[in-house]
Design a protein that fits this description.
The chain has one domain. The protein contains 4 helices and 4 strands, in the order H-E-E-H-H-E-E-H. The protein has helices at 5-25, 59-81, 86-109, 130-148, and strands spanning 31-35, 38-45, 112-120, 123-124. A 4-stranded antiparallel beta sheet has the order 1-2-3-4. A hairpin with a 2-residue loop joins strand 3 and strand 4. The two termini are 30 Å apart.
Length: 155
């Protein structure tokens, strides 16, 4: 099912292009209000999700890059072994594309570029990017496929 890797490539391209556009348009932590609950805000994340381990002095860059690279290899092998499982193939391809998008940031610039800032009053969700959206959607699709996909008996 390597044919689904085009979706991964599309995610990587959209992710990298959007990050470059935002980074070339904004200063770090500069905000552009878009909607009453959404801003574009350039932020750099040296850690993992929710800035986990971002203050650890640099070793985490290589640790998270290695973890992402291993995950991508495992998911590509899994994808190659699929037969007619389209939803699972799409979900794996989305996660692969998102992981590669953030991996490229870590390898080439040392941090992940985030810019999508959703909030309610003074409560902000941590900023994220297109790669993060692809990973999240891919994982959700995996759960949907596991719970309701073909071959699952209805209770």
């Amino acid at each position: 099912m390597y044919r689904w890797l085009w979706l991964s490539l599309g995610v990587v391209l959209l992710d990298q292009l959007s990050k470059q556009l935002v980074e070339s348009s904004l200063m770090v932590y500069e905000t552009i209000p878009v909607l009453p609950f959404f801003n574009l805000t350039l932020a750099y994340n040296e850690g993992a999700a929710f800035s986990f381990l971002s203050d650890q002095g640099g070793w985490q860059r290589w640790f998270f890059a290695l973890v992402a690279a291993v995950v991508v290899v495992v998911l590509v092998v899994w994808l190659a072994r699929l037969r007619d499982e389209r939803v699972l193939a799409v979900s794996l391809s989305l996660v692969i594309g998102g992981a590669v998008g953030n991996l490229l940031d870590r390898l080439f610039i040392g941090h992940v570029i985030d810019f999508l800032d959703f909030f309610y009053q003074s409560y902000h969700w941590p900023a994220f990017n297109v790669a993060d959206m692809a990973i999240t959607l891919g994982v959700v699709l995996m759960f949907v496929d596991a719970l309701f996909g073909p071959g699952r008996e209805a209770d």
